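Before going further, learn to read the protein records used in this course. The integers have meaning only within a learned vocabulary of local backbone shapes. The record below shows the convention in full.
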Amino acid sequence: MTIGSKPGQEIALSDEGYFEDPSQWNETFAREYAAREGIEITLEHLAILEFLRERHFSGHSATIRSITHAGLADVKKLYELFPDAPIKTAIRLAGLPKPKGCY
């Protein structure tokens, strides 16, 4: 599966919608991808997505707890921002690969 609004700017995704190459991520694609899931990206979303990317690239796992401990959002707010499965949705929108052990 690929996403991209312009030819030559397509990003390869796994069958489950996770980025295969996190270095291809940018805010434009995050907004486009989120819109497909019915989410309009706000500054709150972006802060969480950037936090998750920083954790990923520093070798740390992304968890709901890490987001709440960083003071970015409480659990209720995470479900408002990323309905259904907040961490899975946020990780996909952050352009990260599927976490190991994630079903």
Remarks:
- Helices lie at 27-36, 43-57, 64-69, 75-81, 86-93.
